[in-house]
Design a protein that fits this description.
By secondary structure, this protein is α/β, with parallel strands linked by helices. Helices cover 28% and strands 19% of the residues. The chain is globular, with a radius of gyration of 19 Å. Magnesium ion (MG) binds next to loops.
């Protein structure tokens, strides 16, 4: 069912269409003709365009207000398509065979004959590749028949979108269509794993954990979160995942005017109205917490609170990725 939606800020019509076989074909044709598509994936919604088409890729950077030095992830429907774009090494074969499709992006040397827009890879000798687990996303990419560049579908530097409504609110009038498939089940951007050097390095923690990668490669990848002088991932230079409201981490109490983002069973915030509190997971489930994180930050950020107090989240497994996003939200 197609329905038109008025974007609050810009009063322009954005077409949000529920995912069906018909709308998948329509979404693929938006990509084929050089348009911009809001694409659901298992991690976050993407702002998708034909990665072979420099003008379409330029529209992505323009819509997001993204600095041109920050390269995009290229999405493919399967490993064979990825092998046409990058030079695979043994580690790349092993991790993609074990962990694709899934929330894992790999960085590899870009092939000279890849045909990918230089703007999409920001002139780098490497390329970021991902094959999403979301069956609808893969169906769109397959039907488009081209590699698909897709950053998260939010204005640069703001919270990533986990619903079609988040996409419409952030970028609405810049898009030709938003394909809606409900809330993203993972809720955090993919793990970015650099396999272009001698040793595997995680440049962005995500739902594929260091342990998952260690099980495949027999070696635990280092995590380089870019908090030093020479970040490897251009995106690490940027202010990221930032709500407008100040975020205070590891909160054990509440200050006047603050909203609460809780984790696990707690009495903290029992006097707050429901509108001023969310619990990432009452049962301390990290997967549930990751899926709720950006949506709850969006909601609390819109509430006009003086701050958002965030209770501690364990720094293990998926908690590494949750805490990475929370630190970036608090640092801005
Ligand atoms: O889950 C995801 O990965 C989502 C969905 C839509 O697939 N996409 C996403 O894209 O998060 P984006 O553009 O928001 O983040 C891509 C990150 C950036 O930090 C960028 O700097 C990094 O990947 N990146 C891209 N190409 C790179 C390269 N060649 N070397 C190092 N980092 C790279
Ligand atoms: Mg992003």
């Amino acid at each position: 069912m197609a329905r038109a939606r008025v974007d609050d800020k810009n009063q322009r019509m954005v077409k949000i269409v529920t995912i069906t076989d018909t709308s998948i074909a329509e979404a693929a044709s938006v990509i084929k003709r050089g348009g911009l598509l809001g694409l659901p994936t298992e991690t976050v919604y993407g702002l998708a365009a034909n990665a072979l088409d420099g003008r379409a890729v330029a529209r992505i950077f323009e819509a997001k207000g993204r600095p041109a030095f920050n390269p995009l992830i290229i999405h493919v429907a399967n490993k064979a398509a990825a092998e046409k774009l990058a030079t695979f090494n043994a580690a790349a074969h092993a991790v993609t065979d074990a962990l694709w499709p899934g929330p894992l992006t790999i960085i590899l040397p870009r092939r000279a004959d890849s045909g990918i827009s230089e703007l999409a890879t920001a002139g780098l000798p490497t390329i970021a590749l991902r094959c999403p687990a979301h069956a609808g996303a893969r169906a769109v990419i397959e039907a488009a028949g081209v590699p698909v560049a897709a950053p998260s579908a939010n204005a640069s530097g703001t919270l990533s979108p986990t619903t079609a409504q988040h996409v419409a609110a952030s970028l609405g009038d810049a898009l030709d269509m938003i394909l809606a498939a409900g809330a993203c089940p993972v809720g955090l951007e993919s793990t970015v794993l650099d396999l272009s050097g001698d040793m595997p390095v995680i440049l962005r923690p995500g739902a594929v954990t260091p342990d998952d990668i260690a099980r495949v490669l027999g070696i635990t990848p280092a995590i380089d979160d870019g908090q030093h002088d020479a970040p490897k991932s251009p995106g690490q230079l940027l202010r990221h995942y930032a709500p407008k409201t100040p975020v205070r981490l590891n909160a054990k109490d509440l200050q006047a005017g603050e909203a609460l983002l809780a984790f696990g069973p707690t009495l903290l915030g029992r006097h707050l109205p429901d509108s001023a509190k969310r619990n990432l997971s009452d049962g301390s489930d990290l997967h549930e917490a990751a899926a709720n994180l950006f949506g709850y930050l969006h909601t609390l950020d819109a509430g006009g609170h003086s701050g958002i107090a965030v209770m501690p989240v364990p720094d293990t497994g998926l908690g590494l990725a949750i805490n990475d996003r929370l630190k970036r939200a608090a640092n801005s």
